[in-house]
Design goal:
Helix 3 packs across helix 4. This protein has two domains: 78 residues, Helicase, Ruva Protein, domain 3 (Orthogonal Bundle); 125 residues, 3-Layer(aba) Sandwich (Rossmann fold). By secondary structure, the chain is of the alpha/beta class. The termini are far apart. It has a four-stranded parallel β-sheet with strand order 2-1-3-4. It is globular. The longest helix is centred in the C-terminal third of the chain and has 21 residues. InterPro entries: Phosphatase-like_N, Ptyr_pPase, Ptyr_pPase_sf. This is Protein-tyrosine-phosphatase. Keywords: Arsenical resistance.
């Protein structure tokens, strides 16, 4: 873990160092036979850096880094053909990954269950998921409090079968062979609950149409 824990970009506490070491061990166990310690540490290293400047609660950084590194490694395994479960992968992208893409992810995950894989990301990730979006989804019985804003990476986009973009414009990545859809959905940032609900309902309708197109029965 030398490369991970002795970077000029980090000023880690003892607890953070221990948490990152433990995360590396867990990830190595999960991806044994696929990726070695160097790859695990590199993904954990770069994932930590993605959050170190955006999040102000240092004790959460190792956990966020581990979760994001795991998702990235899962995506890489799909890109490289190591993971073939036949499930479609859908990626929801917006600017801050705090409102629209998180609500879309919440609906898709709730409706598709384990019949598909869904991720989300942002071109300029915010510090937290929009509380108004969380409240609106709670009204639908869907809990997105465990989600967090994150960027996208090449392997995540390349692993997706369908990429849904919402407001990220030219910043949204384009790779040949991937199906792209741009949804014209208002940004709920700064809006009161009564204005967020129509956005939520619009996303729910769009998700149901997408599930039909992918031949995925909704829960």
């Amino acid at each position: 873990m030398a490369d991970l824990l002795h970077s000029d970009q980090r000023d880690l506490s003892v607890d953070q160092e221990l948490a990152l070491r433990t995360a590396a061990v867990r990830l190595a166990g999960e991806f044994i036979g696929l990726y070695g310690p160097e790859t695990i540490e590199r993904f954990l290293h770069t994932s930590y850096d993605q959050f170190a400047t955006a999040h102000t609660i240092p004790n959460y950084l190792p956990l966020l880094a581990e979760r994001f590194a795991r998702q990235r490694l899962q995506a890489l395994a799909r890109v490289e053909g190591h993971h073939r479960d036949g499930k479609p992968v859908v990626l929801f992208l917006c600017t801050h990954n705090a409102g629209r893409s998180q609500m879309a992810l919440g609906f898709f995950t709730a409706f598709a269950g384990d019949r598909a894989v869904a991720w989300s990301g942002g071109s300029e990730p915010g510090a937290q998921v929009n509380p108004a979006a969380i409240a609106a989804m709670t009204e639908r019985g869907i809990d997105i409090t465990g989600e967090y804003p994150k960027p996208w990476t090449d392997e995540i986009v390349r692993a997706a079968d369908v990429v849904i973009t919402m407001g990220c414009g030219d910043a949204c990545p384009i790779f040949p062979g991937t199906r792209y859809e741009n949804w014209d959905v208002d940004d709920p940032a700064g809006l009161p609950p009564e204005q967020v609900r129509p956005i939520r309902d619009d996303l729910e309708r769009r998700i149901r149409v997408l599930l039909d197109q992918l031949a995925i029965p909704a829960n």
